[in-house]
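Quick one: structure tokens for this chain, please?
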Amino acid sequence: MDCMATSVHAQHCPFCGIVDGSVDAHIVYADSEVVAFLDRSPLFHGHTLVVPRHHVVTFADLAPDRVGPFWRRVQHISRELPLALGAEGSFVANNNVVSQSVAHLHVHVVPRRRGDGLRGFFWPRTKYAEGEAEVVAGRLRAGFGRFTD
């Protein structure tokens, strides 16, 4: 279902609000399949969430014909994010129900550097200083460019 569909759940989903533009976010990539935006409480600056435009709660709920297009975009973002931010790599993760703070499928793409302190599943969160999120978002938008299949 579209995020703008009339389901009660989709009407109250903050990620659907980001997709339809009614909720502010630092969007770093958007096309017909996904919207990617900065996590508001990032592990590290540049921590990006990738969500399908259609409201589904978990990966298991994603229609089979949408799996490939969705994950190709996650792959693109995970490849370009380190380049855009000068990171050494990325961490890609998806939670289904447990530890899923918003009931809308989302994949975390997190920039990584050796010695960054990320260990196991203890994830200390950081905050952006005033204006800093927009600077990071601009670098990512420029780095992600346009996805081509």
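The two ends are 23 Å apart (CA to CA).
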